[in-house]
């Protein structure tokens, strides 16, 4: 076992526990303390999951971009593992976002799915990064898979603003952002209690994200270690 | 300057090969024509509807034929380790990217020059005077498609089931080009000019510039042996 693995494991455990606590508090605050929305009623409470999910998904894609760029530059295995791990989590959180959105959309808009700009963009992101994962799994040679995926990771991320623009020009139906508006400060638009619940949830999701990322990263490292040991034994 | 010269030499090699073998161009051309027939049978379009549908149908046909071309873009290099030989030679990898993009671009444009007028004939469209503008939009869209497509063809080059994987990774990334070309063509067909679709044309231009540049810069990493 690697030296220093034990403290890392312990720290990761603490991170996981903190994530659990923060999400539990955030949920309690969001479901019980914060008032229901003036127009949408109770349904709106899914926001406390929906917003953190999509923000962590975007964080993921940014990390894929950083990891990919670093890998092409330095050729270090760890950057590739980071990009791969982040891509998997990104797909997970994007899928969660779409599912939560559907659950909210059904009572609010009357449909599970609509071709609104933001929904479409999210679905396209999901497709791009599923393609990224498939590409990785279909190339046998590890180094080739890593550099091919890194190029896709960079191109995919740089394409997002263009896709964003085109899809928005194409159509917009999604409600405009209700918290971040240009002419008002965030706390003037929403009940402060709502904002607190959202912030706690967001912190919880971030902690959970980094907990999962570190687990997934360790998994990637272990895969490499097992391979190296097998090679050393000649099997 | 050497970049351009190398690109030219590589492009000439591909064109010469195509001239002798006549593989890609003919298959792409017949596939494109075949798609027009398939569309005609599946939609059974009324004359007033066709103006609305034409841009989307045309672009679908080009997307599919283009993907067909991209899938066999590196076939010649796969035989007899030609790719390794190319990579051993001291040429700029960016030139290889530009040459391959250019080659697929020429094939697709040749197909489009025939398929677009054919579309007008088969679907009884009368707006022949709009064809130059349609071609221009089509050219810009095809440049973007070939640039990004060549990158993705190279990225999937060593994957299993690469012919299936290629459209899977390529199409989601192509959404801006698909939307922009279709909106531009729609406006041209409806109004007789680009008009409000000008921002779309700029987006298309931006896409072309960004991905051609990225291709030249990143191709080195994609194609390494």
Distance between the termini of chain A: 20 Å
Strand content of chain A: under 5%
What is the number of domains of chain A?
Answer: 1
Largest interface (CB within 8 Å) is between: A-B, 30 and 33 residues
Helix/sheet category of chain A: mainly alpha
Mean pLDDT of chain B: 89
Distance between the termini of chain B: 26 Å
The number of helices of chain B is 10
Low-confidence stretches of chain B: none
Percent helix range of chain A: over 70%
- The percentage helix of chain B is over 70%
Structural class of chain B: mainly alpha
User: How many DSSP H or I helices of chain A?
Assistant: 7
Please state roughly what percent of the residues of chain B sit in beta strands, choosing from under 5%, 5-15%, 15-25%, 25-35%, 35-45% or over 45%: under 5%
Question: Could you name the key traits of this structure?
Answer:
A: 235 residues, mainly alpha, 7 helices, B: 10 helices, globular
Please describe what this structure looks like.
By secondary structure, chain A is mostly helical. Chain A has helices at 5-33, 47-74, 77-109, 117-138, 142-170, 186-189, 192-233. The two termini of chain A are 20 Å apart. The model of chain A has no long low-confidence stretch (mean pLDDT 87). In chain B, helix 2 (24-43) packs antiparallel against helix 3 (47-71), helix 3 runs antiparallel to helix 6 (93-122) and helix 3 packs antiparallel against helix 9 (175-191). Chain B is built from ten helices and no strands. Chain B is globular. Chain B has helices at 2-21, 24-43, 47-71, 75-78, 82-88, 93-122, 131-155, 162-173, 175-191, 198-223. Helix content of chain B is 83%, strand content 0%. By secondary structure, chain B is mostly helical. The interface between A and B is medium-sized, with 30 and 33 residues.
